[in-house]
């Protein structure tokens, strides 16, 4: 009994070539548009983005206000002279990096925790375009939000910066290095979280890793003065980023032993390595 | 058309799907039947490339699923009603899927209407009942207007009206020449919707073919006979391969004989017949019979005999089906 095949009585209906009348064609642009809709149709996205803008602006404003205290204290007053105004404007990035990392994590872990990933990968079974589209969408959103935060910060800190003659000049290359570097750093942090999130598939786990690497480790290890620990710390994302985010050696983190270029490369590694691991695992694992 | 060849999936030392081969012909509704944990969902996930087979291959319309340019218009799959982000509205969910294939928003609204979700299209999926989740799953399966539909337990969680709707939809889709492959652990559901059956137990195909053929092959045709000279007739009919079971009201049920054979024998000996009726074995009976081995094998995993029996039976049906 060639059971299934032969007994198909309805084989009267041949494979009608005309059947799919719907015009459907998968493209990478389509996959990206899908990711856009995904990102913008979640309330959590708007919460995280709103929080990022608010926190970054507030921290920057607070930094500007603390200039008064700095100026009065004879210990810190000399530092004021070496400070660049753009550092104040981008001052919220150390906190913004955390909310942006949460966004990067949620973009993929939200899919794994709800089961959405199975719908996603059924639509795009080659899988890697999904990761690429997520990374691009994330980079765009992060850039826009960071620029918006810094524009707002610029507005609210200008009166205070004027007092100390620190308003960042738009024709100063250092201004653009710091502002551009901030965008670069936050995009890298978002990629880091996206990569780790794809590997771990868990929101809690990813956020914990991101918080630890981005904030906790530089903070806690910073108190240890052993040489080799200090070397490790300088290669953590935040200290490495300070190599291109601060101008003088007056950074609160105590400056970076890395050159600006080395800092850029180290930060890039934090973005690229998890993403490569994510790509390999995403292709290989069962959804 | 779905073709699986020696499809196998192992998780560690547990074999979920064990050298499964089958063909799902176009234009048919094929029921994939088996107890929970028999390997139905794993098989279906391998068809759409979500799980990677440990060994063997499976193709859809001649190609592995992932090799299709527009997979959503080849195969629509409802694998898990919960494969949706709970924070998104039903419509947004469908739009994200549609966008990947540049499917119009008009089509999104079409499938929303088709599945009766219009009223809740803008509500977040997190608040959906299981039945509404199933409808959304079916809506996303229909999105690309696919030639093949794979539905894993589509009536699970639906109210009677919803069950009726799924049955009609499935028949309608098959009538349009589409291939429908749907799973269930309920035999009765299959009798309502499927024309072909693929029965799986403990990762192996244990039977395949048209619904009635599968049932007959397991239970064998039963003929009920009533006669004033029944003991005499029974003696005449008794031979190897024939079993006689007394029915409750003085009739007997014969297994292994056709009504014609019984009638001819009776006529040859001048025995009057008061009733001679073929009995349809119930689906549930057939199902229990089919899966019994698999269940027994499960509880006496160390006993050698049932293992051997089970294996040979499984292989035989598989080979028969491949021919």
TrEMBL record, chain A:
The chain crosses the membrane at residues 46-71, 91-110, 131-156, 176-200, 207-229, 260-282. One of its GO terms (cellular component) is plasma membrane. One of its GO terms (molecular function) is ABC-type transporter activity. Pfam families: ABC2_membrane_2 (PF12679). It comes from Cellulomonas fimi. This is ABC transporter permease subunit. The lineage of its organism: Bacteria, Bacillati, Actinomycetota, Actinomycetes, Micrococcales. Keywords: Membrane, Transmembrane, Transmembrane helix.
From TrEMBL, chain B:
GO terms for molecular function: ATP binding; ATP hydrolysis activity. It comes from the Bacteria. CDD domains: ABC_BcrA_bacitracin_resist. Pfam families: ABC_tran. Keywords: ATP-binding, Nucleotide-binding, Transport. The keyword Zinc-finger does not apply. Belongs to the ABC transporter superfamily. This is ABC transporter ATP-binding protein. It comes from Cellulomonas fimi. The lineage of its organism: Bacteria, Bacillati, Actinomycetota, Actinomycetes, Micrococcales.
């Amino acid at each position: 009994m060639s059971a299934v095949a032969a007994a198909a009585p309805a084989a009267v209906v041949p494979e009608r070539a005309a059947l799919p009348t719907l015009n459907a064609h998968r493209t990478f642009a389509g996959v990206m548009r899908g990711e856009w809709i995904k990102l913008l149709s979640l309330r959590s996205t708007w919460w995280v983005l709103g929080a990022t803008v608010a926190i970054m602006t507030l921290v920057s404003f607070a930094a500007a206000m603390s200039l008064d205290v700095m100026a009065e204290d004879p210990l810190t007053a000399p530092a004021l002279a070496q400070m660049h105004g753009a550092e104040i404007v981008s001052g919220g990035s150390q906190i913004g990096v955390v909310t942006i990392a949460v966004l990067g994590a949620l973009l993929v872990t939200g899919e794994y925790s709800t089961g959405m990933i199975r719908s996603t990968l059924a639509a795009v079974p080659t899988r890697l375009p999904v990761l690429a589209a997520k990374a691009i969408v994330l980079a765009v959103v992060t850039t826009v939000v960071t620029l918006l935060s810094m524009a707002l910060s610029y507005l609210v800190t200008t009166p205070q910066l004027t007092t100390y003659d620190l308003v960042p000049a738009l024709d100063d290359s250092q201004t653009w290095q710091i502002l551009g570097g901030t965008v670069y750093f936050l995009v890298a942090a978002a990629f880091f979280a996206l990569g780790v999130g794809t590997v771990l598939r868990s929101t809690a786990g990813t956020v914990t890793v991101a918080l630890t690497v981005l904030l906790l480790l530089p903070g806690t290890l910073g108190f240890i003065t052993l040489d080799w620990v200090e070397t490790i710390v300088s290669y953590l994302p935040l200290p490495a980023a300070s190599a291109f985010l601060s101008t003088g050696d007056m950074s609160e983190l105590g400056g970076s032993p890395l050159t600006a270029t080395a800092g850029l490369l180290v930060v890039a590694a934090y973005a690229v390595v998890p993403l490569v691991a994510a790509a390999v695992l995403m292709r290989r694992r069962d959804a | 058309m779905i073709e699986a060849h020696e499809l196998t999936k192992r998780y560690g030392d547990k074999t979920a799907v064990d050298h499964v081969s089958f063909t799902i012909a176009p234009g048919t509704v094929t029921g994939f039947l088996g107890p929970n944990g028999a390997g139905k969902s794993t098989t279906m996930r391998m068809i759409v490339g979500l799980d990677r087979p440990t060994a063997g291959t499976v193709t859809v319309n001649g190609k592995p699923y992932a090799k299709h340019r527009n997979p959503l218009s080849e195969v629509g799959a409802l694998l898990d009603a919960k494969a949706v982000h709970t924070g998104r509205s039903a419509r947004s969910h469908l739009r994200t899927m549609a966008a990947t294939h540049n499917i119009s928003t008009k089509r999104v609204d079409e499938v929303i209407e088709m599945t009766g979700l219009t009223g809740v299209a803008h509500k977040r999926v997190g608040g959906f009942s299981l039945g509404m989740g199933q409808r959304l799953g079916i809506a996303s399966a229909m999105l690309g207007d696919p030639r093949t539909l794979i539905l894993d337990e589509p009536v699970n969680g639906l109210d009677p009206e919803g069950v009726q709707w799924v049955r009609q939809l499935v028949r309608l889709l098959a009538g349009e020449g589409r291939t429908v492959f749907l799973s269930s652990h309920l035999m009765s559901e299959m009798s309502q919707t499927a024309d072909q059956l693929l029965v799986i137990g403990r990762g192996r195909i244990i039977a395949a073919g048209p619904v009635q053929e599968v049932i007959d092959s397991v239970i064998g045709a039963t003929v009920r006979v009533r006669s004033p000279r029944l003991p005499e007739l029974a003696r005449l009919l008794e031979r190897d391969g024939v079993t006689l079971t007394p029915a409750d009201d003085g009739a007997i049920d014969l297994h292994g004989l056709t009504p014609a054979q019984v009638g001819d024998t009776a006529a040859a000996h001048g025995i009057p017949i008061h009733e001679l009726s073929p009995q349809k074995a119930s689906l549930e009976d057939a199902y229990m019979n089919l899966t019994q081995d698999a269940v027994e094998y499960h509880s006496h995993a160390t006993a050698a005999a049932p293992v051997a029996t089970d294996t040979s039976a499984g292989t035989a049906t598989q080979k028969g089906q491949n021919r």
